[in-house]
């Protein structure tokens, strides 16, 4: 039967791997699970958009994951996350459009910055508040 859910396999507790060690494949190169990477991306910027979650219907693998995002302007996008970065692959949730030739962005910040003025404002304000808090901390 084909797996549609892309939850990483659960490892037994006695594997001998340290939790923070990097898993490597046989050639010794680091293997990234893009679903975990996608979850981290979502957690990073969720506060600055209306809705954002890793797609449960589009297939994800070690080298690709899909993220649905709705900006504060109510625009919906499906993003593809690969080693090359993030790019818009459709203008709705859980879709891909092969005809769409959108540029890759190295970070979710630059991608959302290009799509959503409201994201830029919210993110900028959060940054300013954090800087103010750090300033107060260093003065006390």
Automatic annotation (TrEMBL):
| UniProt cross-references to Pfam families, sorted A to Z | GSKIP_dom
Q: Which GO terms describe its biological process?
A: regulation of canonical Wnt signaling pathway
What InterPro entries does the database record attribute to this sequence? GSKIP, GSKIP_dom, GSKIP_dom_sf
Give GO cellular component annotations, separated by semicolons.
cytoplasm
Taxonomic superkingdom: Eukaryota
Q: Which residues form the GSKIP domain?
A: 34-134
Q: Which GO terms describe its molecular function?
A: kinase regulator activity; protein kinase A binding
Query: What protein family does this chain belong to?
Result: Belongs to the GSKIP family.
Q: Which PANTHER family match?
A: GSK3B-INTERACTING PROTEIN (PTHR12490)
- The entry's protein name is GSKIP protein
Organism listed in the record: Neopipo cinnamomea
């Amino acid at each position: 039967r084909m797996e549609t859910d892309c939850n990483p396999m659960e490892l037994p507790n006695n594997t001998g791997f340290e939790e923070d060690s990097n898993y490597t494949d046989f050639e010794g190169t680091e293997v990234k699970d893009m679903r975990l990477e996608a979850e981290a991306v979502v957690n990073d910027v969720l506060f600055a958009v209306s809705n954002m979650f890793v797609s449960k219907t589009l297939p994800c693998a070690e080298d690709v994951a899909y993220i649905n995002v709705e900006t504060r302007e109510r625009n919906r996008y499906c993003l593809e996350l690969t080693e090359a970065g993030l790019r818009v692959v459709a203008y709705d949730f859980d879709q891909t459009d092969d005809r769409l030739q959108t540029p890759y962005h190295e970070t979710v910040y630059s991608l959302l910055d290009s799509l959503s003025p409201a994201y830029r404002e919210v993110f900028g304000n959060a940054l300013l508040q954090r800087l103010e808090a750090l300033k107060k901390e260093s003065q006390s």
